[in-house]
Structures are given as C-alpha cells and as structure tokens.
C-alpha cells in the first residue's frame, strides 16, 4: 500500500456528521434497537436499519485504521490484496457518483423552493397598503 493510502486511512478527513434524523435517533437510543411499538412502523424500522449501517461503517473504519497502524508499527509497511485495492477504488467511484447525484437533487430542490417562495413573497394585492418587513 502506498504511503499516500496509508496516510489517508490513518489521518482521515473529519467524519461527515450523521444526517439529522439518524443523529437524533442515535442520541435518543444508543443501542439502535427499536422501542416497543416502533418495530411495526416500516418507516421507523428503515430509519433504525440505516442508522445501524452508519454505525457499522464507523466501526469498520476504526478497525481498519487500527489494523493499518499495527502493520506499519510492526512491519513498516502494509501489504494489501489487489482485490481489496480494486474494490476500494470501485466503492470510491460509486460513492463519488452518488454524491454528485445527491448534490444535483439538492440544488434542483433548492431552486424549486426558491421559485415557489418568489411567487408567495410578492403577491399583488393592490389594496394600496404597502407593507414592508425587516
């Protein structure tokens, strides 16, 4: 494994915060086990499943960092299987494409909200009373 890859694993960018609904769920229920009554709600079960996946990914990253750190300390290098390197590159490419799509959706959604706000903010009521809000 190249030193660049080792550094990127041992010194990752600050983690992206969990999206708000998952963060709130994690804060209110650390075990991420549905409470009585929640297991029947499909939407709530999906929320728990996704939060557990975020948590599993964090744990896997921590294990990988620890393993790489140990390899560097004991051997001075990290030997990786070519398949692992290929899969990691594929995952990075897929994640990059997904982020582009997500950003595009957010930008389009924001533009649509802005357009609808314009219509409601500037109603022509012609009552002669102009009101200004600051």
Automatic annotation (TrEMBL):
From which domain of life does this come?
A: Eukaryota
Acidic residues: compositionally biased ranges: 109-134
Which stretches does the entry tag as region Disordered?
1-20, 106-134
PANTHER family, per this entry? EXPRESSED PROTEIN, OS05G0193700 PROTEIN-RELATED
What name appears for this protein in its UniProt entry? Uncharacterized protein
Q: Which organism is it from?
A: Digitaria exilis
Organism classification: Eukaryota, Viridiplantae, Streptophyta, Embryophyta, Tracheophyta
